[in-house]
Amino acid sequence: MDKEQTDRKSSLLAALERCENPYTLAQIEALLKKSDMLQPIGDLARTYPFLLQLHSTRDLSLKTRLKNKKDNPLSRYLEYTAAPVFFLSLLMLVITAAIINNFSFDEQGFQINTFIAKLAALFGILWLAYLADFFVILFLASRTRSRIAQSAFVPKLLSLIFPPTGIGLRHLETPERTWLPYHHWSKCNEGLFNRLKEQFSIPMIVIALLIIPVLLIEWQFYDQVENWLNTDLSFVLDMVQGFIWLAFAFEFILLVSITNDKFTYIKKNWIDLLIILLPFVSFIRTLRIVKVARLTHLARGYKLRALLMKARQGLIFASFFYRLLAIKPDFQLRKLKKKLDQNRTEREIIEEDLVKMSLWLRQRKKKK
Predict the structure, then answer these.
(1) CA 159: distance to chain centroid?
(2) In the structure, what pLDDT confidence band is assigned to residue 319 with cuts at 50, 70 and 90?
(3) Contact of 184 with 78, CB cutoff 8 Å
(4) How confident is the model at residue 63 (pLDDT cuts 50, 70, 90)?
(5) Quick check: helix, strand or coil at residue 82?
(6) Helix axes 211-219, 292-317, angle to 10 degrees
(7) Where is pLDDT greater, at 338 or 331?
(8) Of the residues 147, 168, 188, the one at which a domain ends
(9) DSSP state letters, 297-342
(10) Residue at 364 is within a domain
(11) Contact assessment for residue 102 and residue 235, using Cβ atoms and an 8 Å cutoff
């Protein structure tokens, strides 16, 4: 054992003497019991020292209001247009919410009222502005030979198909940054993601629960409420559902843009994606693929279930989650303990694979 390893061991023993955390001690004890089994990994680490780099790669820092370089026309253009593009994308998302949640149908099929027609025309005009912005960027990049990051350019290009996805787009020259209201240019990392997720959690609970009275009115009390309000109740309910859809779509698009592991986020939040896609089921009516009434009730029923699940997800993330479940703390603790056990099992499987790899390399070395 060399001096460096001896000093490291002495330092760890001193830290162990000072440690009074029973959870930490239990983990150390469990790890020491596997010391003999993990010895091949220790031998492997002498050849591949990167296996000993156990520090966390998570970036939990919150870096906002960052300054970008303005050393070329493209950089200056991106700086000046970041806020307008964000709010333009948000406005187009609002228009989309109004359009897809306010279609009307009769026995003849699909109909569009004057209000929706005007919104569609406005969407088209705004899309032309969005398209012009894209061509200006291409022109400036070509003229100044500025280097555009592919990881940021591809989402920008795809946003031409559906401009509301322009919310949270990355900086084309510094792709690890995005522009957000109040935060301005911010680093896209786990710290920013967690902050936004926490800020969304409570409002999304309230918004998710709005669907319950809406669906109760639609299913059971429509005539009574319409007579009581003496107004076009269908339009009011459509606008409420449009607002709910808008909130979920905005949160989903923004958080997908912020996270660096988009596939994992989408996989974990597939319910959110279904909530966003459900209104588009209305278009199937025009194709007459399935019976209208059955499809509508199926979509509404699933939307209720999905939104309730979303509300629960928000509660889990919210800081007051444990106070709400104080009457059954054991249930939550056991659930979290189960997740820890699953994580530990996965780690043990990986360690077993490393042991097998070490033994295989040792045998191959002997044959040589």
Answers:
(1) 17
(2) very low
(3) no
(4) very high
(5) helix
(6) 160
(7) 338
(8) 188
(9) HHHHHHHHHHHHHHHHHHHHHSTTHHHHTTT-HHHHHHHHHHHHHH
(10) no
(11) yes
pLDDT digits (tens, 9 = 90+) for 127-149: 999 999 999 999 998 888 888 89
Residue type, 258: I
What percent of the chain shows pLDDT beyond 70?
Answer: 80
Tell me how far apart the alpha carbons of residues 209 and 357 are, in angstroms, rounded to a whole number.
52
Residue-wise pLDDT tens digits, 75-124: 999 999 999 999 999 999 999 988 876 654 444 444 456 777 888 899 99
**Domain span at 134:** 63-188
Going by their DSSP bridges, the two strands 177-180 and 109-111 should be labelled as unpaired
Task: Give yes or no for a contact between 172 and 148, defined as CB atoms under 8 angstroms apart.
Answer: yes
- Residue 356's identity, in one-letter code, is K
Q: Taking the C-alpha atoms of 121, 124, 128 and 129 in order, what is their torsion angle to the nearest 10 degrees?
A: 70
Which residue carries 């025309």 as its tokens? 121
94 residue type, one letter: V
Q: Which residues contact 285 (CB under 8 A, 6 or more apart)?
A: 105, 109, 110, 292, 295
Q: Same domain for 226 and 313?
A: yes
Q: In whole angstroms, give the CA distance from residue 201 to residue 195.
A: 10
Q: Which residue has the tokens 């032309």?
A: 128
Cα separation values, 289 from 77, 104, 190, 284, 306, Å:
47, 17, 43, 6, 24
